[in-house]
UniProtKB/TrEMBL annotation:
Stated name of the protein: Nucleoside phosphorylase domain-containing protein
Residue span, Nucleoside phosphorylase domain: 56-285
Gene Ontology cellular-component annotations: cytosol
InterPro entries, per database record: Nucleoside_phosphorylase_d (IPR000845), Nucleoside_phosphorylase_sf (IPR035994)
Gene Ontology BP terms: nucleoside metabolic process
Source species, domain of life: Eukaryota
Keywords noted in UniProt: Membrane, Transmembrane, Transmembrane helix
Species whose genome carries this gene: Cafeteria roenbergensis (Marine flagellate)
């Protein structure tokens, strides 16, 4: 997306309310507990706040995908690799960002999500792959998840089964806008996704309790779930608990199910479509990565704009009413002087007020942007 498209998309996020505190990861630890062990470096993600530098991140399960994501950053650099948890950093539009691998499955991913929250990260977008669950879906299509069916197991350690795992509305909107794509691209699928705890359990008849498993799959499909993957529930559940904004965009890797009313492929064909890395699948992965990066740019632009407006409002609130910033009051004739170029000018009164207003606005913008970058 070009700069104008990013600006337009960012303006569409403005009506959404934010949780308080804004842009603050809310991890509350019991007294005396220090998961960072005093050195600001978690046990598994071997990166400190000074290492990753940014609070905005893009996540993927595959460590090999992190360098591809970081290639779209400005000044990318590898920060750390430990137990497959690779981390790169860079910048987008002058703001520090990072990309990190979380491994396969909610149990592995939850460790990374928790440790990134401990490091102060406040905005996380996962980019991954999925199997389709509805008629009309194709390999290479892109899915934006609005929430997850918590069929993973890990999130039950956090929340009762009735509690939903939902994405942040700002990131859903940003991803929806970012996945509009170029002319000719198929529109994204937007909806609830299924998060499972076992990759192979979706193969019909493959698990011991096949009848029960197949009935559950029929329920997910019949209820309208659009895709199935393995980490989204942990991302959304932990994001909600830690006050971290979360979103997820997926590329369809294989046609798992075709949905109600459609003839399912044979089991062999379905498995083959998942295991074959076709050109369509590769194109879908690339599109999903670009969408995640563009969505992060949209959110960053929105945050910078909101922070600038907030700082300007705080400055205006502190300025005496006699010196308004927006519209200078009428100045008496006695304050005018003759200008050799323009006749009578309201100077120095109006000139000082105008310069002061501009200076306050500029300082507010600089202060807000600097504060946002320091927070990163």
């Amino acid at each position: 997306m070009d700069t104008h498209s990013i600006d337009d998309a960012a303006s569409m996020l403005a009506p959404f309310p934010k949780r308080a505190p804004v842009l603050t990861a809310g991890v509350q630890l019991p007294a005396g507990v220090d998961f960072l062990r005093g050195d600001a470096e978690p046990m598994h993600v071997k990166a400190s706040p000074n290492g990753i530098k940014g609070a905005y991140g893009i996540l993927a399960g595959d460590p090999g995908r992190i360098a591809k994501i970081a290639a779209l950053f400005d000044d990318p650099a590898e920060v750390a690799t430990n137990r497959g948890f690779t981390v790169w950093r860079g910048q987008l539009d002058g703001v520090n960002v990072f990309a990190a691998a979380h491994g396969i499955g909610s149990a592995s991913a939850a460790i990374v999500f928790e440790e990134l929250a401990l490091l102060g990260c406040h905005t996380l977008i996962r980019v991954g792959t999925c199997g389709s669950l509805q008629a009309g879906m194709r390999v290479g299509d892109v899915v934006v998840s609005t929430g997850c069916i918590r069929d993973d197991g890990t999130t039950r350690a956090y929340l009762p089964a009735e509690f939903p795992a939902v994405a942040s509305h700002e990131l859903v909107t940003a991803l929806r806008l970012a996945t509009m794509g170029a002319e000719g691209d198929r529109p994204p699928w937007v909806g609830v996704t299924h998060c499972k705890g076992s990759f192979y359990s979706e193969v019909p008849g493959y698990v011991p309790d096949a009848a029960a498993a197949d009935a559950r799959w029929a329920a997910w499909v019949g209820g309208g779930a659009v895709a199935t993957e393995m980490e989204g529930a942990a991302l959304f559940a932990i994001g909600g608990a830690r006050n971290v904004r979360t979103g997820m965009v997926l590329a369809v890797l294989g046609v798992t199910k075709k949905g109600p009313g459609a003839a399912d492929e044979s089991t062999a064909e379905a498995v083959a479509s998942i295991l074959t890395d076709s050109e369509e699948a590769a194109a879908g992965k690339t599109r999903a990565i670009r969408a995640a990066v563009d969505a992060l740019r949209i959110v960053i632009r929105h945050d910078v704009t909101a922070a600038t407006a907030g700082a300007a409002k705080r400055v205006e609130d502190r300025v005496p009413a006699a010196v308004p910033l927006a519209a200078p009051r009428a100045v008496k004739a006695s304050t005018t002087r003759h200008c050799p170029h323009h006749g009578h000018c309201h100077a120095p009164a109006i000139g000082l007020i105008a310069v002061g207003a501009a200076a306050f606005g500029a300082l507010a913008a600089l202060a807000a942007t600097a504060a946002l970058r320091r927070a990163d």
